[in-house]
Design goal:
48% of the residues lie in helices and 20% in strands. The chain is globular, with a radius of gyration of 14 Å. The chain has one domain: Metalloproteases ("zincins"), catalytic domain (Collagenase (Catalytic Domain)). The chain has a 4-stranded mixed β-sheet with strand order 1-2-4-3. The model has no long low-confidence stretch (mean pLDDT 94). The chain has 154 residues and is α/β, with parallel strands linked by helices.
């Protein structure tokens, strides 16, 4: 099954969701070579992200990205993805300023980060975090080569 939904429930930035969909499909199909997926990407404000963070992870406050894996048997480097990715647009804007990049590139990075989690990458231990970050950077470079990420702003 191949399903990809986007829910834009924030007003921080106007987002070109059709372009974000193309970016996501490029990563899924051309880079991760995953044909089967059932995903929903939620673009939310900081308050909504804080509610998700507290309710499901028992953490206080907003965060950049939260991923929920609904695969029946999660496995390393999964062949199919089933889950949800929540992305805080205000956190993307703040992180972009901190890391001297654009919020659009941060948004693409968060989508990639979530997809990597759903495909079996983990960042809980330093060694795994470095491995995941290398793959995240590789995928972001491929995306930036293929798309004009500034056009994610409407």
């Amino acid at each position: 099954m191949t399903v990809l939904h986007f829910r834009n429930r924030q007003r921080t930035k106007r987002i070109n969701v059709p372009l974000l969909r193309r970016v996501t499909l490029f990563v899924l199909r051309d880079q991760l070579v995953l044909r089967e997926h059932e995903l929903c990407v939620h673009l939310v404000d900081a308050a909504a992200m804080a509610r998700v963070n507290e309710k499901f992870l028992q953490h206080t406050g907003s965060t950049d990205v939260i991923t929920f894996d609904y695969s029946e048997q999660p496995q390393p480097r999964a062949a199919t993805l089933h889950g949800e990715i929540f992305i805080s647009i205000p956190d993307a804007v703040a992180q972009a300023k901190e890391f001297n990049t654009t919020w659009q590139a941060e948004l693409a990075r968060y989508v990639i980060h979530g997809l990597l989690h759903l495909s079996g990458f983990d960042d809980l231990e330093p060694k795994l975090r470095r491995e995941m970050k290398r793959e995240e950077n590789r995928l972001l470079k491929a995306v930036e080569k293929e798309f004009r990420l500034r056009e994610l702003a409407r």
